[in-house]
Amino acid sequence: MRSGEGFKKLREERGISQRKLTEGICARSTLSTFENEGSHLSVDLCSKLLDRLNIRIDTYFSTLSEDFDQKRVEFSELKKSIVTEDTDSIEKHKQNYLARYASTRDFYWFHLYFLSEEFLCQSETRFTYERFKETHKKEISLLKKYLNKIENWSHFEFAVLGNSIWYFDLEFIQLVKERLGKNYMTSVKYKKELYGSFLLNMGFYCLEYGHFELIEQLKKELFELSNYTNIHWKVSSSYQLSLAEELSDPPSSSKAETLSHIKIYEQMGEEDHYQNMINYRQRLVEKHKKHYDCFTI
After folding, report:
1. Measured between alpha carbons, how far is 137 from 161 in angstroms, rounded to an integer?
2. Span 53-112, pLDDT tens digits
3. Strands, DSSP E only, in the chain?
4. How confident is the model at residue 62, as a pLDDT?
5. Averaged confidence pLDDT in the chain
6. What average pLDDT does range 272-278 have in this prediction?
7. Less crowded by CB within 10 Å, the N or C end of the chain?
8. Which of 69, 71, 2, 68 lies closest to 34 in space, CA to CA?
9. What is the full DSSP assignment across 38-75?
10. pLDDT band at 151 (very low <50, low <70, confident <90, very high)
11. Which DSSP string do the residues of 18-46 spell out, in sequence order?
């Protein structure tokens, strides 16, 4: 966790707005930039703000370091258990994360709890996004409530949304897009990267639930954001649009056209990713089969 993110977490836990905290000390924009973009904050200014929060500066930096190291270890252990499909270990992690969230109200632990629960459910043969959404309404409501209350998103909020996007309704996703797009399309580089990743995830969300009419606009926005470092946005969004056209009724694209957009992954030696995209298309074809009966796969 960056120092700005840690500061923001402490401020929000105490229910103090940026404006109220900075009144008579510094400009609100100074604190906002520090919390959300990782800019430098002098020790003197940081001390004054922490005093108003009733937190000692040495306690703040000590807590920040310990918190980061602990969370990094816990997340690494969860990933290892997921990769090895160790469901017994994941179940233990899940209960531990839920207990930590209950005692600290730190939403990071709830996020790990949700990821653990999702993986355990996905290991069952009858898993579908729709069924999971129906049986986990309370958890999904908490995710939405958290995302709604955070005014300026950091990497963590985008990760929460990206990992759970399948369980939100379209209206919520569109509200998020409208809210974020005003600030992130023309923001600093790392915020554009976060927003671009969100748009790409939204494209896959629209494919999953049949909102094919929205994908062309998402592709347009991703092309505007793309540069040489994230050229895969153009590749993936072109693939998404072609697949949407293929799945529409009547179809205006073909299997060959859809797969031609991702052929570059195979040419670059990314055979696993290429095959995953092929499998993904096949799964969606089968899922939307009621719109696909009139033409050959």
Report:
1. 16
2. 877 776 677 666 667 778 888 889 999 999 999 999 999 999 999 999 998 888 899 999
3. none
4. 63
5. 88
6. 95
7. C
8. 2
9. -----HHHHHHHHHHHT--HHHHHHHHHHHHHHHHHHH
10. confident
11. HHHHHTTTS-HHHHHHHHHH-----HHHH
Residue type, 238: S
What pLDDT does residue 201 have? 96
In the block, tokens 């922490």 appear at 50
Query: What secondary structure letter does DSSP report for 250?
Result: S
CA distances from 286 to 242, 278, 280, 296 (A): 17, 13, 10, 12
Q: Which residues contact 59 (CB under 8 A, 6 or more apart)?
A: none
Which pLDDT score, from 0 to 100, does residue 297 have?
A: 47
Burial of 145 (0-12, 13-18, 19+ CB in 10 A): exposed
SS3 171: helix
CB 243 within 8 A of CB 213: no
Domain ranges (residues) in the chain: 83-166, 169-297
Query: Which residues have a Cβ under 8 Å from the Cβ of 266 and sit 6 or more positions away?
Result: 274
Segment 14-26, tens digit of pLDDT = 778 899 999 999 9
> 142: which 2 tokens?
């908490």
